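During the reporting period the student researcher (J.K.) took over the structure-prediction task from the postdoctoral fellow and processed the backlog of single-chain submissions. One of the processed entries is reproduced below for the supervisory committee.
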Amino acid sequence: MQKVFFLFFLLSSTYLHAAKPHEPTMYALIVGDTVSENIRPAVLADISNIERSLDVISQQINYRLKLKVLEGHSIHTKDAIHWLKKIPVSSRDIIFFFYSGHGTQDMDGKLWPVLWPRINGQGVSGNAVLHFLKKQKNRLSLAFFQACNAPAKENNYKKKIKGPFLPFLDPSISLPGLKTLFLHTRGLVSATAAKRGDLAWSVTDDIDNAMLGSIFTHMLVNSLQEKCLNENVSWEDVLKATSENCTAEIDSWDLVEIENLGFIKAEQHPFYQIDVK
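J.K. obtained the following structure tokens:
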């Protein structure tokens, strides 16, 4: 009798475990070009700021967060597509892709940059990342490219700013708009720090010269923080504010001196596309 009861318990436990519904998950991949010494501090700051912001987002929308960071000498940009292909997504899941590093203009005329970390001379088109995400069966995909979108020398395009800018989402503040953006939206949201022909700038603190990360990442985080205080928010609201604030900040700068290039007028106009319902 004891054996029969044990077998029944074992079968029941197995059935209940198998029948457990898939836990809604946000699969997040961050790719950082930490090999290039000239941009390494900015990339590390971006990685940290996005990681901490994702923690806040996942907690407030009550999603499990599965985070992978690809950085260092061992990675290739093709590893990003490989990792994305292995995600066991369901219809309720979210895919979040973020790249911070060197980029260049697509020679085929595409609007999106080629993500080009200085590792074995291999890059991947941002357009290829978006093409892959469009084919997935999950509910929402997001892709953000913090990279130059122009043929450029291997410089760190940076400027001191006074701020203040919020480096990552504040975990102590309730942001009801996050649920609107991440739970009540279906489709693909994509943005790049610089439109075709533009450079992407990083910023340092005006007081102690500490590297703060990229201006695009800061403006994205600040726009999310500000706009998501209101439940009635859209991705258009967030990315329009990100783009306008980024461009306005850089337009306010005087000529910037860049090694090997002399003094130039800084320009950066983020570009985004929203295909959601």
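The committee noted the following: The radius of gyration is 21 Å.
J.K. will present the remaining backlog at the next meeting.
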